[in-house]
Automatic annotation (TrEMBL):
It comes from the Bacteria. This is Short-chain dehydrogenase. Coiled coil: none annotated. Belongs to the short-chain dehydrogenases/reductases (SDR) family. Keywords: Oxidoreductase. One of its GO terms (molecular function) is oxidoreductase activity. It holds the Pfam family adh_short. The keyword Lyase does not apply. The keyword Oxidoreductase applies. One of its GO terms (cellular component) is membrane. It comes from Roseivirga spongicola. InterPro entries: NAD(P)-bd_dom_sf, Sc_DH/Rdtase_CS, SDR_fam.
Length: 234
């Protein structure tokens, strides 16, 4: 039987590249996004090969009740979750002392709380089986402060702390936990920026790194994956 990977926000960027990578490596996929049409197009694209299953559910991962509903949908499939990638995130530029009111709450709810609540909802079965791998898509902004990063950096610093704590709590249960910390990657977050595409990393490279970390033996865990553009940060 094919293993199951749960990957949030799987229709674009790093999420989509990781969905495609794991699917091509023999995993069935459960994913979500806010746009139902994008989810159906993704499912049709992957399932056109006739191999594997893709389960989709429209979800706004910044809303606690929708995270809970997505977790219940995953559980309703009655299948063990082998890989969980908490990939949902939003970037709103701005400095702490000048950004719009509510930016911090929006990015904490999206970037941190989504991972916290979904991991809590799905981890009990992993603990019972003493098996599983949890990834979080953070950012180099989670350990390097920079101007105009504001609440985004705060949320990503918190996400890295969450993942470090989870690693320590779950290691004796056989569950691997990995922080993915990419620099500038060519995704929708960078639309409109007047820089050549080759200045950015490819989402497919991030997906390859995630899959490579998972494919190691279960007695080895990559705790942090830090990736940067070859020419340095943007």
């Amino acid at each position: 039987m094919r293993k199951l990977a749960v990957i949030t926000s799987g229709t674009k960027g790093i999420g989509r590249a990781t969905v495609e990578k794991f699917f091509s490596e023999g995993f069935d996929i459960v994913t979500c996004a806010r746009n139902a049409e994008d989810l159906l197009k993704l499912k049709e694209s992957l399932c056109s090969t006739g191999e594997g299953e893709v389960y989709v559910r429209p979800t706004d991962m910044s809303v606690r009740s929708e995270v809970t509903a997505f977790a219940e949908y995953v559980k309703s499939l009655g299948r063990p979750v082998d890989v969980l990638l908490n990939n949902t995130g939003v970037f709103i530029p701005g400095s702490i002392h000048e950004e719009e009111e509510g930016n911090l709450e929006k990015m904490i709810e999206t970037n941190l709380y989504s991972a916290y609540h979904l991991s809590r909802a799905l981890v009990e079965d992993m603990k019972a089986r003493k098996e599983g791998h949890i990834f979080t898509t953070g950012s180099i902004a989670g350990f390097t402060a920079y101007a105009n990063g504001g609440s985004y950096a705060i949320s990503k610093f918190a996400l890295l702390g969450f993942t470090k704590c989870l690693r320590q709590e779950l290691k004796d249960f056989g569950i691997r936990v990995t922080s993915v910390l990419p620099g500038a990657t060519f995704t929708a977050s960078w639309e409109g920026v007047e820089l050549p595409q080759e200045r950015f990393m490819k989402p497919e490279d991030i997906a390859e790194a995630i899959y490579s970390a998972h494919s190691l033996s279960k007695q080895t865990v990559v705790e942090e994956i830090v990736l940067r553009p070859q020419l340095g940060d943007i």
